[in-house]
User: What shape does this take?
Amino acid sequence: MKFLATFFLILITCNDAWAVRKVRICSDRGLWYPFMMTERGEAKGMHIDIIRMAMKNMDVKLEITPLPWSRCLRDAQKGRYDGVATASYKDERAEFLIYPPDAKTAVKSQFRVSQVEYVVVTTTDNPYEYDGELKSIPQPVRTPKGYSIAEDLEKAGLFVSSTALGDKQTLQNLLRDNKGSVVTIPNVIQHLSKSPAFSGKLKISKTPIKSKSYFLAFAKQSRLTVDEMNQIWSEIARIREDNAIMTEIAEKY
Assistant: This one.
């Protein structure tokens, strides 16, 4: 009887620890529709909704601060945040971030927030169509600053311009210069093409160049234990696999 009382006391204490803990993460404040965006200073998007729901289900308080992506990564490295939303796997990032166990090896990780495809975007008057040959992509290839896809393209020998702070700016630069290309996700183009500034001016190549898993990655200096991280990743996976929940989230965007 004494053993059972001790067990339940430990269990209640563990639950209370989760309930009062505040997890602080930063997110990319740029437009990465529908996964990540910022409205009136608040982080929004499908990735944010999934993470918020996972934390709420586990009675964990969550604070999200939208930042320029490079700064978000830098501040997580310094221990100012418990994690970042959301990051693909890179060896360089793994030096200061903790990823799910299959992040490095799996093409589609079990613990991803979502899987994202990258496509080549050109102006509509450019006849180019990506055919699977990376070196054929019109240069300069534009990507936002700090995005991992830039390094992938540079390794293929392409000239990459990654000074813009977000996809919208990279596309504005493409239209201004009328040469080269942008590598981004198709949802961003579909969303921005609703506005007169971009409508009818951009073309998406049909063949994706890469598919990546994106994660809630935790800072190595976070107060969270590895067990707690695993619990959060498992809850994210459960939510992502629930078609009813994901349909409800997607309909918001």
About this structure: The radius of gyration is 20 Å.
